[in-house]
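User: Run a structure prediction on this.
Assistant: Running it now.
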Amino acid sequence: MHSFGYRANAMLTFSITILALMCAMASVSDNFNSPSPTSEVQVLNINWFQKKPDGDDEVSLTLNISANLESLFTWNTKQVFVFLAAEYQTPKNALNQVSLWDGIIPSKEHAKYWIHTTNKYRFIDQGSNLRGKNFNLTLHWHVMPKTGKMFADKIVMTGFRLPQAYR
């Protein structure tokens, strides 16, 4: 006859194997989801555009951010981290990214939203490169699953321009 320790070890090993198999199946099932999120950002006002005493450009924007990220949620989604970034080029760098706003969406019920806000984080360029600069606003998201690997993507919105003169 088998001892209690042997039977407990066999039962624990079997349980952990089944749990690992279920986690793997949950992770693989996310590959069949093809999300189609939508987003729109409007720059309502440039509150100020100034040159700081240290020579850096600083901008404050009033924004309307609307998005429908419900399609990112599956039964395996724990939460979604979202952030809005301004992206532009300078002679020194091919890509500059400045985070303007971020948020955590805890459930599908909160994944469709509309926000009227000013930039949460300062929009500063190290130098005087922002006057008359074209920039994109990009909504990035990171899907954090209950099990499996994280997934990230973005929507790029083009056609934004800063003024030639400081205000």
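The first strand starts at residue 38 and ends at 51.
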